[in-house]
Amino acid sequence: MSVVVVGYVPHPRGRAALEHGVLEAHRRGASLVVVNSSRGDALVDEEFVRGDRLRALHDELAATGLTTEVRQPVRGRDAAEELADVCRETGAELLVIGLRKRSAVGKLLMGSAAQRILLDVDCPVLGVKSPPREA
Q1: Among positive and negative, which fits the CA dihedral 21, 120, 54, 32?
Q2: 134: in domain
Q3: Can you tell me the distance from the alpha carbon of 112 to that of 107, in angstroms, rounded to the nearest whole number?
Q4: How many whole angstroms separate alpha carbon 116 and alpha carbon 111?
């Protein structure tokens, strides 16, 4: 079975990545692997999902009707390395990541994590932005 991998953080950009990942997995008839990693400081890392948020994520994934898996590596490596490894291990046909809004200079340079992901991952990468905030 084909696999779609999603890089997830509990922020609007992570929600956007998850939503698009679910859509792509359905479209492709693929399973979904959600990756939420920490460099090793998971207890204080605001981007590492735990407790009620983790249970809610599992419940949300169960409701999709997809075969899903949540991986939470805590190995002292950055997200780009973890995502590249998971994509290789699963033979992913697509990686979905969320992108944050950048300044003019930031747009020129792109985020370092996103840039590394694009360079390190062997499969196609879909970068999505969260919807603009409502006024």
Answers
A1: positive
A2: no
A3: 11
A4: 9
Contact criterion met (CB below 8 Å) for 114 and 99: yes
The CATH number for 7's domain is 3.40.50.620
Q: How far is CA 36 from CA 7, 68, 121, in A?
A: 6, 14, 16
Residue 6 is encoded by which pair of tokens?
A: 């999603």
Distance, in Å, from the CA atom of 109 to the CA atom of 91, rounded to the nearest integer, reads 29
pLDDT in tens, 15-31: 999 999 999 999 999 99
Residue predicted with more confidence, 70 or 106: 70
Percentage of residues of the chain with pLDDT beyond 90 = 59
Structure-token match 């809004």, residue found: 101
Domain that residue 19 falls in? 3-129
